[in-house]
Amino acid sequence: MIGFCLVGGGFIGPLHAANIAARDDAKLAWVVDLNTSAAESLGVRFGAQTTAELDRALADPAVHAVMICTPPRTHVALIERAAKAGKAIFCEKPVDLDIAKVDVCAETIARTGVPFFVAFNRRFDPTHRALFDAIRAGDIGRPEMLLLSSRDPEISPPDYVAQMPYGIFYDTMIHDFDMVRWLLADEIVEVFARVACMLDASENPHRDPDTTMVQLKMKGGALVHVNSSFRATYGYDQRIEAFGEKGMLLSRNQQPTSLERHSAQGIRQDPLLRFFIERYAESYRRELDAFIGALKDGTRPPIGVADGRAALAVADAAVASVRSGSAIKMDA
Amino acid sequence: MIGFCLVGGGFIGPLHAANIAARDDAKLAWVVDLNTSAAESLGVRFGAQTTAELDRALADPAVHAVMICTPPRTHVALIERAAKAGKAIFCEKPVDLDIAKVDVCAETIARTGVPFFVAFNRRFDPTHRALFDAIRAGDIGRPEMLLLSSRDPEISPPDYVAQMPYGIFYDTMIHDFDMVRWLLADEIVEVFARVACMLDASENPHRDPDTTMVQLKMKGGALVHVNSSFRATYGYDQRIEAFGEKGMLLSRNQQPTSLERHSAQGIRQDPLLRFFIERYAESYRRELDAFIGALKDGTRPPIGVADGRAALAVADAAVASVRSGSAIKMDA
Amino acid sequence: MIGFCLVGGGFIGPLHAANIAARDDAKLAWVVDLNTSAAESLGVRFGAQTTAELDRALADPAVHAVMICTPPRTHVALIERAAKAGKAIFCEKPVDLDIAKVDVCAETIARTGVPFFVAFNRRFDPTHRALFDAIRAGDIGRPEMLLLSSRDPEISPPDYVAQMPYGIFYDTMIHDFDMVRWLLADEIVEVFARVACMLDASENPHRDPDTTMVQLKMKGGALVHVNSSFRATYGYDQRIEAFGEKGMLLSRNQQPTSLERHSAQGIRQDPLLRFFIERYAESYRRELDAFIGALKDGTRPPIGVADGRAALAVADAAVASVRSGSAIKMDA
Amino acid sequence: MIGFCLVGGGFIGPLHAANIAARDDAKLAWVVDLNTSAAESLGVRFGAQTTAELDRALADPAVHAVMICTPPRTHVALIERAAKAGKAIFCEKPVDLDIAKVDVCAETIARTGVPFFVAFNRRFDPTHRALFDAIRAGDIGRPEMLLLSSRDPEISPPDYVAQMPYGIFYDTMIHDFDMVRWLLADEIVEVFARVACMLDASENPHRDPDTTMVQLKMKGGALVHVNSSFRATYGYDQRIEAFGEKGMLLSRNQQPTSLERHSAQGIRQDPLLRFFIERYAESYRRELDAFIGALKDGTRPPIGVADGRAALAVADAAVASVRSGSAIKMDA
Fold first, then answer.
1. For residues A316 and A320, what is the distance between their CA atoms, to the nearest angstrom?
2. DSSP strand E in C205-246: where?
3. Is A256–C24 a contact, with Cβ atoms under 8 angstroms apart?
4. Distance from first CA to last CA of chain B, Å, rounded?
5. Contact yes or no for D227 and A142 at CB 8 A
6. Residue D27 and residue D18: Cα distance in Å, rounded?
7. Most buried of B268, C62, C130, D240, CB within 10 angstroms?
8. Helix, strand, coil: what percent of chain D each, to 5?
9. d(CA B224, CA B228)
10. Confidence grade of residue D332 (pLDDT, cut at 50, 70, 90)
11. Where are the beta strands (DSSP E) in A155-209?
């Protein structure tokens, strides 16, 4: 029975708490949040102790793993404390927005030897995973082009946007940069990015980029395109297309029902699933599976701090490309 | 160069005339129609002679084949005259609505030995044909169930309906009865039919059935369902589903474009192609191919008078089933 | 907090037990099974008491509802005992296979006034429900034809088949008969059924029908087709098509992933979901929702004993039609 | 009756000749080809005179329009001669590969005032046109991103490749550059391109780029992605996706049949149409319609020499981007 300490009871925290509770090999032991009522609400619901002080929870030997669901800027300090306490760590992406801090963090993890996992949940989506498996199985031969569309139905609230400039790269497309590396099992060596502000000032008051296209080149030669937008009116648009010497694989979108309505106006289906939590519900369950499986088997969790760093470096390069107008070379 | 005499310049006649004109191995030599202006209009367009008297055209040695596109009640007399003149015959379905007259006709054809073809065009549709080929290739093993949906967007005009009671069987579903026999390479031994008048009196003043479901049993044991309606608002709905021990084949509908429109209201595609002449354009070309090919090769055209008779007998049985309320057995 | 006593720990029982456990307004209090180890395994997993004696559980005031998941022939006796103990009842379909016993049961339920629910889960599937809602909203106007395909990938084991002759009607298509009544909000007045044994003797040693087509007529005039098979190699095939004066609605099949694979051999997608428990996972959750919701609100559960009886009567009529070769009229 | 002189009897010439022949308002008067047997074969088939000397045909007053289907390097000289003879000109793309020569050509066309049409056939494809119409109608509001996939199943023969280096831009993607300008009604202001040689030396002995991704920026701010490959094993892949403030439009691929095959291995459809002549058959008919329509109405043909020049300039910029590694700015 793996005991978890959840740090951060907002947003994605309750989702992970429920997934832990549904398992028979894991238990939510503690919820840590400065917001006492958020912690208590989860504690009551899932039978966990609550505190505003992480050290109390870390001192509990029933805690084997710390799950970090707080805002990104707090991650590194929490990782340091959890690592020093010898706990396994499940950390929401990104590790941090400052690559130097990620490097310090990586050293701590290496030195303490604690299992560490960055929660790039999309790797665990059944359809994306089936695409990955098909590439590995050689179904399309050598991959030559990869295209990802990664569009949100809405921009985040202004406060959130203000805290993370270029969030379209650091918060959204960082998932895609990770997917590119994982799907192609290769490193990105060149980044060319262009952005636009297409939303009105009323919706996007900080004029942070809300639309972007990025073109990447891989060390092995494959060409990659990624695009993102914060106003996909038709739902959460999440498609991947891998083209290779023997064929093409498409991870298509998903809809709430499979109803088809025929009328004189045409054939109509549901819009796409709108919320990422619905769209990726299964991926959240399966990433927890993978993390717990690694703890049980004593193996390294499948996505490490180096993966978190690599995706962040691509986001940095994308910003540099936008600012300079040039393609940015990366070491691979 | 096969010379054709087209009898009947209305409705489907011009379509066949254009298909003949587009070939380099056939020529439209004569157009015969009591309506002189209809004949002349086609004659001018395709460089053919015109007449109201069939015998003039039959006397022309440049006429090798007679294409009969007149109303069904005139078919048998025209077939008799063309057969006696030794011409090959391409006859629109049905041969006749009276099975006794079809039998007389069959004798004439047999006696004169002229090539005879009943134009069940759907057998030549590329998708239906691919389904047929897949069955023959054993892709689904032994066929166990067959389902056909055969729906028109509109009922025929009242005058037309008045001339052919139970037209839903004799005019529309007769195609499906032929498809069933052809696809399964088997004979129908039982017919159970139910009908309804769903249209308003304004649209269907004769209260002739406009909606029907028919359940058939084949000699070999397969079960078959066919349905039809005269108000498919979303277009000309033509689907076939063959289920067998190893799988299922679906001949799906077709649309004018492959555009997909995503919005907050959902994903919308075009309604189905609306007119049978568009939907089955390729089948009309290919049935002419098959007829001309048989004439050139000296082989028997692929759909004979016995096929026309068999489909008509099923339509008769469907009417008998509706009237009696019982399933009707057929000799196979 | 609604306390449940689950009777029958095999097959579908554990699924319902897990769905109860995932709720915060219900609790699995008891598991009753003659098979002690089955009961204990569930009891340990979900923190419930276990017994082989129903009366012990019924005596517990923490039990508000009895969930009956035993074989059909045991349902009536269990319903009687639970009703007399004043417990709400959630009963797996069918209520019984003998309509006279169902009638006795209905009297008991009426007399005791206990809430009673027959678990026709398909009514709660999100896509089928969306189709139902669209009919109710008038999207297709008056429904004129309804088609259901309801095919299993495999026949049940011989022992199971031996216990329920014509299981294709009583066990499988009884769902469809219920769906027809529910979707059309109308009663079935005529039943015509044909069956076949298509499977080999090795797979279907009892030669019980494994393939069937049924044609129904509704009191309001709509025509209905239902087909079923026990060897859909491509997965659990569950489609509904409703055709009406203004259009058509299709509840299409579902697949485990949305991956599409393009190669020189064509475009390939996953086969259908294979197991009914996966395909209808959400419907099982939602039927529990509906039952518990009714208990909380003090309303009548949405599917009653009269619905269970009506679907059974159609199954009886289908057998009578097969035996007599005729269409069977039903009182509506 | 518009008389045509076809120059160039190979490849695309016979297609256009057949489309002319199928019309009742146009006639193929002459076929001009240095290859006498190619000219004669078409002449016999369509009843046209033949010659190796263009001037003979241009001298015929029955020739109203010259259709240029020869290799690109010969286009300008032919245009000059036809323009001086006062004939309307239908010219296959590209006008020329040297932009200076195109400019000279444009002057001649302006000076002589002859109607001139560059045959960018894809603008006339019914589905692409429906996408264009939907943008114009405001269905997606302001377009923000445009993605085009334009992949051939095979590379051209080595001889053809040798004559046109960077043919992936000049021969293939030039269509897409035209589509971008047309669909967005906007000019391209920045071009960033990357290429790869993915084919083996046996298939691509000249090591000319066979795979490419291009990212464009429009004057109005929209971002555009185009990709191309010469080995789409699954057929001729031609997709367009337009994303805007109100939704998304997809021009999807097309297949030879609408058959769907279900088995334990999954659901399989046909691969895509393989040949561009099949895929774009309707667009070739409709571009001829547009050209002839303009001649009849005395209006300017819808795609002029300036359009041909603009697409060529983007191809030049793509090559410059590949060579320099930088994004190339364009005047708009």
1. 6
2. 211-218, 223-229, 237-244
3. no
4. 40
5. no
6. 10
7. D240
8. 40, 25, 35
9. 14
10. low
11. 188-196
Q: CB contacts < 8 Å between A and B, how many?
A: 52
Q: How confident is the model at residue B24 (pLDDT cuts 50, 70, 90)?
A: confident
| C-alpha to C-alpha distance for A1 and A29, rounded to whole angstroms | 11
Give the pLDDT of residue B290.
98
Q: For residue B329, what is the enclosing H or E element? A: strand B328-329
The DSSP result for D274-299, as a single string, is --HHHHTHHHHHHHHHHHHHHHHHTP
Is the CB of A268 inside 8 Å of chain B's CB atoms? yes
> How long a stretch of residues is chain A?
332
Task: Report, as ranges of residue numbers, the positions in chain A whose pLDDT lies below 70.
Answer: 332
Q: How many CB atoms lie within 10 A of CB A160?
A: 12
- D158-177 tens-digit pLDDT: 999 999 999 999 999 999 99
Strand runs labelled E in chain D: 2-7, 26-32, 49-51, 65-68, 88-92, 116-119, 143-151, 188-196, 211-218, 223-229, 237-244, 247-251, 259-263, 266-269, 328-329
- The reply to whether residue D267 touches residue C233, judged by beta carbons under 8 angstroms, is no
CA-CA distances (angstroms) from residue D159 to A108, C222, D164? 60, 66, 9
| B-contacting chains (≥3 CB pairs under 8 Å) | A, C, D
CB contact under 8 A, C233 and D264: yes
Q: Do A227 and D144 touch (CB under 8 A)?
A: no
The answer, for A258 touching chain B at a CB cutoff of 8 Å, is no
SS3 C255: coil
- CB contact at 8 A, B247 and B140: yes
- At residue A56, the 3 state secondary structure works out as helix
**C137–A contact, CB cutoff 8 A:** no
The percent helix, strand, coil of chain A (3-state, each to 5) is 40, 25, 35
Q: Does D242 touch chain A (CB under 8 A)?
A: no
Q: Which residues of D109-120 are buried (b: 16+ CB within 10 A; e: fewer)?
A: beebebbbbbbb
Contact by Cβ (8 Å): D269, D255: yes
Q: Which stretch of DSSP H or E encloses residue C314?
A: helix C305-324
Shortest distance, CA D270 to any CA of chain C (angstroms): 5
Report ipTM for this prediction: 0.96
Q: Mention every residue, 6+ apart, whose C-beta is less than 8 A from residue C200.
A: none
Of B262, B263, B271, Cβ closest to residue A267 = B271
Cβ of D154 under 8 Å from any chain C Cβ?
A: no
Q: Reduced to 3 DSSP states, what percent helix, strand and coil does chain B have, rounded to the nearest 5?
A: 40, 25, 35
pLDDT at C123: 98
Quick check: C212 and B223 CB within 8 A?
yes
Q: Which two tokens stand for residue B304?
A: 């004979």
Task: Decide if C262 and A250 are in contact by the 8 Å CB cutoff.
Answer: yes
Are B227 and C147 inside 8 Å of each other by CB? Answer: yes
What's the distance, Cα to Cα, between the start and end of chain D in Å? 40
Given CB atoms, is A252 within the 8 Å cutoff of chain B? no
Q: Where are the beta strands (DSSP E) in C219-319?
A: 223-229, 237-244, 247-251, 259-263, 266-269
User: Could you identify the residue written with the tokens 């199985």?
Assistant: A137
pLDDT band at B331 (very low <50, low <70, confident <90, very high): confident
Of C142, C215, C233, the CB nearest to B194: C215
Query: Is the CB of D211 less than 8 angstroms away from the CB of A232?
Result: no
Please give the Cα distance from A65 to B312 (Å, whole number): 76
| Among candidate residues D150, D166, D161, the one with its CA nearest the CA of residue D97 | D166
Could you tell me which of C184, B264, A1 has the C-alpha nearest to residue D246? B264
Residue type, B252: R
Residues of chain C found within 8 Å of residue A253, distances taken between Cβ atoms:
258
Token match 């003797």: residue?
C201
Spatial CA neighbour of C32 closest among C18, C12, C11, C49: C49
